[in-house]
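To fix ideas at the outset, we first show an illustrative case, written as a sequence plus integers encoding its fold:
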Amino acid sequence: MTVVTLYYHQVFKCEAVNIFPGQFYVTDQDILICTILGSCVAACIRDRISGIGGMNHFILPFIGSDPNNPASESARYGAYAMESLVNEVIKLGAIRKNLEAKVFGGGNVSRNYTNFNIGKNNVIFVREYLRNEGIRITAEDLADIQGRKVYFFPRSGKVFVKKMAIITPSILNIEKEYTDSMKVETLSDKIDSL
């Protein structure tokens, strides 16, 4: 699990943690988990009975076409981020059949510097992953061209989303660095190659 620092959130008046690209956090406590998304996706998964849950923040669905690449074992990639989040929530005491998901992000905010639609591929991936795992999506705010601030309360399942008309340069730079530093395949390319 990601090492994070608890702090007091002034607006929501509660303990909170922030997660960043490539991180996830799970808890059985009544705290707030926050993140900011551009084309990245965050999945909020919780046990609807116990309130045990967590959030991840992944940048790309997977790395290239080699699932054995050691870099694919990073929470920056959806396949690993989703597996890690689900497994850690269950380790903490959640029951698989009680899991539900709320998913956010996947905005086409990178359209000005790449012809690869990161957001669209992240959206396709997260929906397919959850469908294959039998985890019901109870809410989503995906795609579009905007970024989002996401505030998730695992205990109650409440999520607040604030749309951002302008994505901060730091979020765009993180996404650009990752796409520039690796060979990126679209999900449709991967499916066609099977």
